[in-house]
Write a structure and sequence with these properties.
By secondary structure, the chain is mostly beta strands. Helix content is 0%, strand content 46%.
Length: 148
């Protein structure tokens, strides 16, 4: 029997990552990652579904009659990364990247960074208020304060 044969790897739809601007403008479109399917040759089997008798690759086998042996494959998936959207805007705030929690208390991810999803997820924009200064001189205000 042949010791090993090969099978092309493929790809399939992975996980959907949606984005919530969390009060900001221009919510980025959702991105669906891909998953690479990797196949490994696992020997031979007498049944196409793999439920028959197994024979290891490279082993000796003496058939007693005509027989068809089927390649047995095991598959695994590798999640491919996506690039997170760049900065978005919100008046009075600085964009601080993406977070797994709308309150910003989850896991942080930088804008434009690589991210590998392991499940469908929504990432929320994380915002930091811009603090301004106001100076008063004889009853006149100078400077600005951005309102959140």
């Amino acid at each position: 029997m042949p010791a090993a044969i090969s099978r092309d790897n493929g790809s399939t739809t992975g996980y959907k990552v949606t984005f919530n601007a969390n009060g900001g403008s221009s919510t980025p479109a959702a991105i669906t990652s891909t998953r690479t399917v990797k196949y490994a040759f696992g020997g031979w089997n007498t049944n196409s579904s793999g439920t028959g008798s197994n024979y290891g690759a490279g082993t000796s086998y003496t058939p007693s009659a005509a027989i068809t042996l089927y390649a047995k494959w095991t598959s695994s998936y590798v999640n491919n990364s996506i690039t997170l959207p760049a900065a978005i805007s919100r008046t009075g705030y600085t964009f601080g990247g993406w977070n797994t929690n709308s309150s910003g208390t989850g896991t942080n991810y930088s804008a434009s960074s690589s991210y590998t999803p392991s499940a469908a997820i929504t990432l929320y924009a994380k915002w930091t208020p811009i603090n301004g200064k106001v100076y008063y001189h004889h009853g006149t205000a100078y400077g600005t304060v951005s309102s959140p």
